[in-house]
Amino acid sequence: MHLQIIFVYRYTRIVRKFSLTFLLALIITLFSTTTVFAAVTWEETQPGGDTIKSWASSAMSSDGEIMIVGNQDGGIYISTNGGGSWTDTDPGIFPPDNYNWYTLAMSSNGQTILAGTYSDRVFLTTDGGDNWSETQPAGDIGANWITSSMSSDGEVMLASIEDVGVYMTTDGGDNWSETQPAGDVDSSWYTAISSSGETMLAGQGSGRLYRSTNTGGAWSEIQPAGATNKAWTVVAMSSDGEVMLVGESNGRLYLSTDGGDNWSETQPAGDTDKFWTFSSMSSDGQAILTGNSQRLYFSSNGGDAWSETRPASDTNMLWQIGKISPDAQVLLAGVYDGRLYLGSNLPPTPNSTSSSGGSAPAQSCTDAMPMNSPDLFSVTPQGLSTVINFVPVSGSNSSYAISYGFDTNADLFATSFNYSGTDVMSYSVNYLFPGTWYFKIRGQNGCMPGEWSGVKSVRIL
Predict the structure, then answer these.
(1) Complete DSSP assignment for 177-217
(2) Separation in Å, CA 434 to CA 24, 248, 268, 336, 459
(3) How crowded is residue 93: how many other Cβ atoms within 10 Å of its Cβ?
(4) Which residue of 75, 188, 249, 261 has the smallest Cβ count within 10 Å?
């Protein structure tokens, strides 16, 4: 289990409605209209208007503010405000909407972007998409560009052609040369690069996995699944190249925490083979987003535990693309022949309230105080999560605050959510590390806080 000294916790709200019979039986039914599952809160974003698109590629700056997405039906869209709005960018080819934008890579500041098409060329911008120029990794030919990756400064790049090979530049795209992880063989390569560009990972679409620790100068085979050929189509890496995740097109996921020396199988979807389509991780390798032909999965502890996350509700979809920002706060996921979704993964703020009751309201507050405290009747562990079940307060109430910590004061951290119903409710606090946690909850009506409930504890294993 990976423990972090800096405590970062993620929350999700799951509001549920009970009938009296279900309450007595503690059988919970979901009724919330908020699309919030697992560790991430999702909302739909519309780069091309309210239309279905076949999203094929994506890239993101280090702070998550600059994003670029491409689709197979033509069109590249850039956002400079974290997905709040999008503009269609034209790399300068005519007509741009006829191209399949299959691969994208971006520098940490979002200014250098590499865009490759399936069946044509590769284009480069160094000013965030304002101006583009054609770059020629394989010479003056059209090709099926399937993957690309880039160092944080945009100087080191890898780009590969389906059934041909992988090409490298170390001067920001001015000069390219072919690199041969497996010797002079025609292969489809899927790649990842560390922040410095020194560590590279390259997986064959039908073969083996290779690593370079000297910016492509030399490659060595590494074997997550033993000495067998696999269809490696998913590769991801932490900023320092120590944490690696690789996946098969129809099989399993494998994780390494020592730069590829040792591997272990990880199972986000249980003990079944899946068609894994992408994976992306935070700079420290602790937060990982991965998808397959049906579902999305998220881990906040380096792959030790996984939870399914559902931007588009409980339906099977082909999740073709996904990105997570280096600080793990911003996520992006797109469906083939579907929609694009933006994820938020914000940490809580420290709790400034006392354990004896609510903070004193402002002197100008005239809102009525909630009539009673919530009845916190159970806290139930679910893996690295805790589900808090409670009976809401009576009378006027607009929101709830949950306070929790490592002792009976339960006042180290806090989160809140808006809700004013009267039915039994449930709230899930996710991704807690093992140990004993204490929780309490109170109502709040506008600016007027209510009284805290009693404290309950739970043991996370």
Answers:
(1) EEE-BTBS----EEEEE-TTS--EEEEETTB-EEEESSTTS
(2) 30, 31, 19, 37, 7
(3) 15
(4) 261
Distance (Å, whole) CA 438 – CA 180: 55
Looking at residue 253, its amino acid is L
- Write phi, then psi, for 270 (nearest 5 degrees): 85, -170
CA angle 181, 186, 191 (to 5 degrees): 45
Counted residue by residue, the chain has a size of 461
Give, in degrees to the nearest 5, the angle at Cα 261 between 259 and 266: 80
On whether the CB atoms of residues 321 and 69 are closer than 8 A, the answer is: yes
Q: Take residue 45 and report the two structure tokens written for it.
A: 């974003």
Which of 176-190, 373-387, 410-424 has the least mean pLDDT? 410-424
Residue 380, amino acid: T
Q: Which pair of tokens denotes residue 360?
A: 């004193």
Residue among 52, 40, 47 at smallest CA distance from 335: 52
| Phi, psi values for residue 20, rounded to 5° | -60, -40
Q: Which residues contact 20 (CB under 8 A, 6 or more apart)?
A: none
CB 35 within 8 A of CB 43: yes
Whole-angstrom distance, CA of residue 141 vs CA of residue 243: 36
Q: In this predicted structure, what is the pLDDT of residue 41?
A: 81
pLDDT digits (tens, 9 = 90+) for 194-225: 999 999 999 999 899 999 999 999 999 999 98
Residue 1 has what pLDDT?
Answer: 31
- Dist CA 442 CA 53 (whole Å): 44
- What end-to-end distance do the CA atoms of the chain give, in Å? 11
Tokens of 319: 């999740």
Q: How far apart are CA 89 and CA 282, in angstroms?
A: 27
Token code pair at residue 274: 């899946």
**Domains, in order of start, for the chain:** 10-33+350-460 (2.60.40.10), 40-344 (2.130.10.10)
Can you give the pTM of this predicted structure? 0.70
Q: Sign of the C-alpha dihedral, residues 333, 329, 65, 284?
A: negative
Pull the structure tokens for residue 308: 């399914």
Is residue 181 within 8 A of residue 205, CB to CB? The reply is no
